[in-house]
Design goal:
Elements: H1 2-36, E1 38-39, E2 49-50, H2 54-60, H3 63-90
Antiparallel strand pairs: 1-2
């Protein structure tokens, strides 16, 4: 019985921190998702229009996006690989 009370107390003590981390992480993700569904011009910020998935369709059909994504993956894997090798060598 005491172990279950301790477990319950531990959950109550951790709950505020977990809730804070979830809210702190969820707010930026949700706000960027909403922003990605709109058309936004920095010259005229008051003229914001809902376009739905049009931005994603335009992104998927753009060849430059896929080329840049490939470069990003290449850079990431090469740099992480070099860091791993150099880090192990230094250790």
């Amino acid at each position: 019985m005491i172990a279950s009370q301790q477990r319950r107390l531990a959950l109550w003590l951790v709950a505020p921190a977990v809730t804070f981390v979830i809210v702190l992480g969820a707010f930026p993700v949700l706000s960027q998702l909403v922003l990605s569904l709109t058309e936004f011009n920095l010259k005229f910020p008051e003229q914001r229009g809902f376009v739905g998935a049009e931005n994603y369709v335009r992104l998927i059909t753009d060849g430059v996006f896929w080329q840049d994504l490939g470069h990003t993956f290449y850079f990431t894997f090469v740099s992480v690989g070099l860091e791993l090798v150099l880090g192990l060598a230094a250790a």
